[in-house]
User: Which sequence fits this backbone?
Protein backbone atom coordinates (compact mmCIF):
# COMPACT_ATOMS: atom_id res chain seq x y z
CA UNK A 1 0.00 0.00 0.00
CA UNK A 2 1.38 3.44 -0.92
CA UNK A 3 1.63 5.67 2.10
CA UNK A 4 -0.66 8.67 2.19
CA UNK A 5 0.91 11.83 3.61
CA UNK A 6 -0.60 15.21 4.47
CA UNK A 7 0.84 18.45 3.05
CA UNK A 8 -0.87 21.80 3.63
CA UNK A 9 -4.45 20.54 3.58
CA UNK A 10 -4.07 17.74 1.02
CA UNK A 11 -3.81 13.98 1.49
CA UNK A 12 -1.47 12.68 -1.22
CA UNK A 13 0.46 9.53 -2.16
CA UNK A 14 3.95 10.05 -0.67
CA UNK A 15 5.62 10.26 -4.11
CA UNK A 16 3.31 13.08 -5.20
CA UNK A 17 3.79 15.26 -2.11
CA UNK A 18 5.90 18.40 -2.59
CA UNK A 19 7.56 21.01 -0.38
CA UNK A 20 9.50 23.95 -1.84
CA UNK A 21 13.31 23.93 -1.89
CA UNK A 22 12.98 27.40 -0.33
CA UNK A 23 11.10 26.04 2.66
CA UNK A 24 12.70 27.38 5.85
CA UNK A 25 12.81 23.90 7.39
CA UNK A 26 14.91 22.63 4.46
CA UNK A 27 17.30 25.61 4.39
CA UNK A 28 17.48 26.66 8.07
CA UNK A 29 15.97 23.84 10.18
CA UNK A 30 13.34 26.49 10.93
CA UNK A 31 10.54 24.23 11.99
CA UNK A 32 9.16 22.23 14.88
CA UNK A 33 7.73 18.74 15.11
CA UNK A 34 5.87 16.28 17.28
CA UNK A 35 5.69 12.50 17.29
CA UNK A 36 2.59 10.84 18.69
CA UNK A 37 2.32 7.08 19.22
CA UNK A 38 -0.63 5.11 17.97
CA UNK A 39 -1.66 1.98 19.85
CA UNK A 40 -4.74 0.02 18.79
CA UNK A 41 -5.51 2.75 16.24
CA UNK A 42 -5.70 5.45 18.92
CA UNK A 43 -3.47 8.40 19.79
CA UNK A 44 -1.38 8.28 22.97
CA UNK A 45 -0.90 11.43 25.11
CA UNK A 46 -2.31 13.56 22.30
CA UNK A 47 -3.31 16.68 24.33
CA UNK A 48 0.24 16.85 25.73
CA UNK A 49 1.77 16.79 22.24
CA UNK A 50 -0.57 19.55 21.05
CA UNK A 51 0.27 21.70 24.08
CA UNK A 52 4.01 21.31 23.46
CA UNK A 53 3.55 22.04 19.75
CA UNK A 54 1.96 25.36 20.70
CA UNK A 55 4.81 26.08 23.12
CA UNK A 56 7.47 25.37 20.45
CA UNK A 57 5.63 27.49 17.87
CA UNK A 58 5.24 30.37 20.34
CA UNK A 59 8.97 30.26 21.15
CA UNK A 60 9.80 30.68 17.45
CA UNK A 61 6.93 33.06 16.66
CA UNK A 62 5.44 30.71 14.10
CA UNK A 63 1.67 30.91 13.78
CA UNK A 64 -0.18 27.70 14.67
CA UNK A 65 -1.88 26.95 11.36
CA UNK A 66 -4.56 24.59 12.73
CA UNK A 67 -6.99 24.55 15.65
CA UNK A 68 -6.72 21.73 18.21
CA UNK A 69 -9.88 20.16 16.72
CA UNK A 70 -8.35 20.25 13.25
CA UNK A 71 -5.05 18.77 14.46
CA UNK A 72 -6.99 15.89 16.01
CA UNK A 73 -9.07 15.42 12.86
CA UNK A 74 -5.97 15.35 10.62
CA UNK A 75 -4.20 12.89 12.94
CA UNK A 76 -7.22 10.59 12.95
CA UNK A 77 -7.65 10.85 9.20
CA UNK A 78 -4.02 10.00 8.42
CA UNK A 79 -4.09 7.07 10.84
CA UNK A 80 -7.28 5.79 9.17
CA UNK A 81 -6.09 6.34 5.59
CA UNK A 82 -2.88 4.40 6.30
CA UNK A 83 -4.59 1.68 8.32
CA UNK A 84 -2.26 2.25 11.28
CA UNK A 85 -2.95 -0.08 14.20
CA UNK A 86 0.36 0.46 16.02
CA UNK A 87 2.85 3.10 14.94
CA UNK A 88 3.64 6.79 14.94
CA UNK A 89 2.30 10.03 13.53
CA UNK A 90 5.00 12.57 12.71
CA UNK A 91 3.90 16.17 12.33
CA UNK A 92 6.03 19.10 11.27
CA UNK A 93 5.28 22.81 11.04
CA UNK A 94 7.88 25.04 9.42
CA UNK A 95 8.00 28.79 8.91
CA UNK A 96 7.08 28.10 5.31
CA UNK A 97 8.36 29.17 1.94
CA UNK A 98 9.38 32.84 1.60
CA UNK A 99 10.25 32.25 -2.09
CA UNK A 100 13.95 32.98 -1.54
CA UNK A 101 16.74 32.40 0.97
CA UNK A 102 17.25 35.06 3.63
CA UNK A 103 18.33 34.89 7.30
CA UNK A 104 15.59 37.31 8.38
CA UNK A 105 12.18 35.77 9.01
CA UNK A 106 9.73 36.31 6.15
CA UNK A 107 6.63 38.43 6.77
CA UNK A 108 4.14 37.01 9.22
CA UNK A 109 1.60 36.33 6.47
CA UNK A 110 3.87 33.62 4.95
CA UNK A 111 1.83 30.46 5.50
CA UNK A 112 3.57 27.81 7.62
CA UNK A 113 4.19 24.46 5.92
CA UNK A 114 2.37 21.57 7.55
CA UNK A 115 3.44 17.98 6.90
CA UNK A 116 2.20 14.82 8.55
CA UNK A 117 3.06 11.21 7.85
CA UNK A 118 2.64 7.89 9.57
CA UNK A 119 5.09 5.10 10.34
CA UNK A 120 3.60 1.67 10.84
CA UNK A 121 5.21 -0.26 13.73
CA UNK A 122 3.29 -3.45 14.40
CA UNK A 123 3.74 -4.56 18.02
CA UNK A 124 5.26 -1.18 19.00
CA UNK A 125 4.46 -1.67 22.69
CA UNK A 126 5.72 -5.24 22.74
CA UNK A 127 9.35 -4.62 21.85
CA UNK A 128 12.11 -7.14 22.39
CA UNK A 129 14.36 -4.27 23.54
CA UNK A 130 12.07 -3.59 26.48
CA UNK A 131 12.67 -7.14 27.68
CA UNK A 132 16.46 -6.97 27.41
CA UNK A 133 17.00 -3.25 28.03
CA UNK A 134 19.31 -0.95 26.08
CA UNK A 135 22.97 -0.07 26.46
CA UNK A 136 23.98 3.59 26.36
CA UNK A 137 27.29 5.42 26.06
CA UNK A 138 28.02 8.96 27.21
CA UNK A 139 28.85 11.76 24.79
CA UNK A 140 29.34 15.47 25.40
CA UNK A 141 26.20 17.58 25.00
CA UNK A 142 27.20 20.22 22.46
CA UNK A 143 23.68 21.19 21.36
CA UNK A 144 22.34 24.74 21.41
CA UNK A 145 20.79 26.31 24.51
CA UNK A 146 17.06 26.00 23.69
CA UNK A 147 16.62 22.25 23.88
CA UNK A 148 13.13 22.82 25.27
CA UNK A 149 11.98 23.82 21.76
CA UNK A 150 11.27 20.73 19.70
CA UNK A 151 12.95 21.87 16.48
CA UNK A 152 13.85 19.75 13.47
CA UNK A 153 17.50 20.64 14.03
CA UNK A 154 18.44 17.06 14.92
CA UNK A 155 21.92 16.65 13.48
CA UNK A 156 23.76 16.24 16.78
CA UNK A 157 21.27 13.75 18.23
CA UNK A 158 21.58 11.87 14.95
CA UNK A 159 25.40 11.91 15.21
CA UNK A 160 25.05 10.76 18.82
CA UNK A 161 23.06 7.70 17.78
CA UNK A 162 25.78 6.86 15.26
CA UNK A 163 28.54 7.30 17.86
CA UNK A 164 26.64 4.81 20.02
CA UNK A 165 26.15 2.33 17.19
CA UNK A 166 29.84 2.49 16.23
CA UNK A 167 30.81 1.18 19.66
CA UNK A 168 28.06 -1.46 19.73
CA UNK A 169 25.65 0.45 22.00
CA UNK A 170 22.01 1.35 21.37
CA UNK A 171 21.91 5.02 22.28
CA UNK A 172 23.83 7.87 23.89
CA UNK A 173 23.29 9.95 27.02
CA UNK A 174 24.54 13.49 26.71
CA UNK A 175 26.64 15.06 29.45
CA UNK A 176 27.22 18.74 30.17
CA UNK A 177 29.32 20.10 33.05
CA UNK A 178 29.61 16.53 34.36
CA UNK A 179 25.81 16.14 34.53
CA UNK A 180 23.56 14.03 32.33
CA UNK A 181 21.13 16.17 30.33
CA UNK A 182 19.11 13.58 28.40
CA UNK A 183 19.28 10.83 25.78
CA UNK A 184 19.59 11.66 22.07
CA UNK A 185 15.81 11.30 21.69
CA UNK A 186 14.53 10.59 25.18
CA UNK A 187 14.61 11.74 28.80
CA UNK A 188 17.00 9.99 31.20
CA UNK A 189 16.35 8.59 34.70
CA UNK A 190 18.19 6.63 37.33
CA UNK A 191 16.83 4.74 40.33
CA UNK A 192 18.60 4.61 43.69
CA UNK A 193 17.11 2.94 46.74
CA UNK A 194 13.70 2.92 45.04
CA UNK A 195 13.85 6.66 44.35
CA UNK A 196 13.41 7.89 40.77
CA UNK A 197 15.90 10.64 39.90
CA UNK A 198 15.61 12.75 36.76
CA UNK A 199 16.80 16.19 35.72
CA UNK A 200 14.25 18.98 36.34
CA UNK A 201 12.66 20.97 33.52
CA UNK A 202 14.61 23.91 32.07
CA UNK A 203 15.90 25.05 28.69
CA UNK A 204 18.58 22.31 29.00
CA UNK A 205 16.26 19.46 28.01
CA UNK A 206 13.14 18.70 26.03
CA UNK A 207 10.06 18.66 28.26
CA UNK A 208 9.05 15.10 27.42
CA UNK A 209 5.35 14.40 27.19
CA UNK A 210 6.03 10.81 28.25
CA UNK A 211 8.15 12.16 31.12
CA UNK A 212 5.21 14.22 32.42
CA UNK A 213 2.83 11.26 32.24
CA UNK A 214 5.30 8.77 33.76
CA UNK A 215 6.11 11.08 36.70
CA UNK A 216 2.40 11.63 37.30
CA UNK A 217 1.73 7.86 37.35
CA UNK A 218 4.76 7.29 39.58
CA UNK A 219 3.47 9.88 42.07
CA UNK A 220 0.01 8.30 42.01
CA UNK A 221 1.65 4.94 42.75
CA UNK A 222 3.39 6.56 45.79
CA UNK A 223 6.83 6.19 44.23
CA UNK A 224 9.45 8.67 45.40
CA UNK A 225 10.73 11.17 42.81
CA UNK A 226 13.63 13.60 42.95
CA UNK A 227 13.93 16.10 40.11
CA UNK A 228 17.60 17.04 40.03
CA UNK A 229 20.60 16.60 37.76
CA UNK A 230 22.82 13.55 38.29
CA UNK A 231 26.38 12.77 37.27
CA UNK A 232 27.48 9.96 35.02
CA UNK A 233 29.30 8.38 37.98
CA UNK A 234 26.10 8.39 40.03
CA UNK A 235 24.26 6.85 37.09
CA UNK A 236 26.84 4.07 36.72
CA UNK A 237 26.47 3.25 40.42
CA UNK A 238 22.64 3.34 40.30
CA UNK A 239 20.41 0.32 40.92
CA UNK A 240 18.72 0.84 37.57
CA UNK A 241 18.14 3.36 34.83
CA UNK A 242 15.66 4.00 32.06
CA UNK A 243 14.60 6.45 29.37
CA UNK A 244 11.20 7.70 28.26
CA UNK A 245 9.88 8.89 24.90
CA UNK A 246 6.69 8.80 22.89
CA UNK A 247 7.97 5.97 20.69
CA UNK A 248 9.89 3.91 23.28
CA UNK A 249 7.49 4.57 26.21
CA UNK A 250 9.55 3.49 29.25
CA UNK A 251 12.73 1.71 28.12
CA UNK A 252 15.11 0.11 30.65
CA UNK A 253 18.82 0.98 30.40
CA UNK A 254 21.04 -1.91 31.49
CA UNK A 255 24.55 -0.54 30.88
CA UNK A 256 26.26 2.85 30.76
CA UNK A 257 29.67 3.13 29.08
CA UNK A 258 30.03 -0.63 29.34
CA UNK A 259 29.27 -0.74 33.08
CA UNK A 260 26.30 -3.03 33.84
CA UNK A 261 23.66 -1.64 36.19
CA UNK A 262 22.48 -3.97 38.96
CA UNK A 263 22.34 -7.50 37.54
CA UNK A 264 22.45 -6.18 33.96
CA UNK A 265 18.75 -6.81 33.38
CA UNK A 266 15.78 -4.41 33.33
CA UNK A 267 15.06 -3.28 36.88
CA UNK A 268 11.75 -3.59 38.75
CA UNK A 269 10.98 0.15 38.83
CA UNK A 270 11.43 0.61 35.07
CA UNK A 271 9.49 -2.57 34.38
CA UNK A 272 6.59 -1.51 36.61
CA UNK A 273 6.53 2.04 35.22
CA UNK A 274 6.41 0.69 31.69
CA UNK A 275 3.39 -1.47 32.57
CA UNK A 276 1.58 1.37 34.35
CA UNK A 277 2.35 3.84 31.56
CA UNK A 278 1.14 1.50 28.81
CA UNK A 279 -2.03 0.54 30.75
CA UNK A 280 -2.98 4.07 31.69
CA UNK A 281 -2.13 5.72 28.40
CA UNK A 282 -4.01 3.08 26.40
CA UNK A 283 -7.05 3.80 28.60
CA UNK A 284 -6.74 7.54 27.94
CA UNK A 285 -5.94 7.17 24.20
CA UNK A 286 -8.21 9.00 21.79
N1 LIG B 1 14.42 14.48 24.75
C1 LIG B 1 14.70 14.58 23.44
C2 LIG B 1 15.98 15.24 23.04
C3 LIG B 1 13.84 14.06 22.48
O1 LIG B 1 14.13 14.17 21.16
C4 LIG B 1 12.65 13.39 22.89
C5 LIG B 1 11.70 12.79 21.91
N2 LIG B 1 11.44 13.57 20.82
C6 LIG B 1 12.39 13.30 24.27
C7 LIG B 1 13.29 13.86 25.16
C8 LIG B 1 11.16 12.62 24.78
O2 LIG B 1 10.00 13.40 24.58
P1 LIG B 1 8.58 12.73 24.41
O3 LIG B 1 8.34 11.90 25.64
O4 LIG B 1 7.64 13.86 24.34
O5 LIG B 1 8.63 11.89 23.17
Assistant:
Amino acid sequence: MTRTVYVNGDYLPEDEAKVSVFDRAFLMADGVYEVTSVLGGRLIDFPGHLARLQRSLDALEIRNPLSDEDWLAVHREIVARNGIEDGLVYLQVSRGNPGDRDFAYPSADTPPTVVLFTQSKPGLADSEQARTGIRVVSIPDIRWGRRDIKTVQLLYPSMGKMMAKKVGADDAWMVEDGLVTEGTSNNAYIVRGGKIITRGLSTDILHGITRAAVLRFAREAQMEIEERPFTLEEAMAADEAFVTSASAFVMPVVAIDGVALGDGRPGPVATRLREIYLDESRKAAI
Remarks:
- The two ends are 25 Å apart (CA to CA).
- The mean pLDDT is 97.
- The chain has two domains: 4-120, 128-284.
- The longest helix spans residues 268-284.
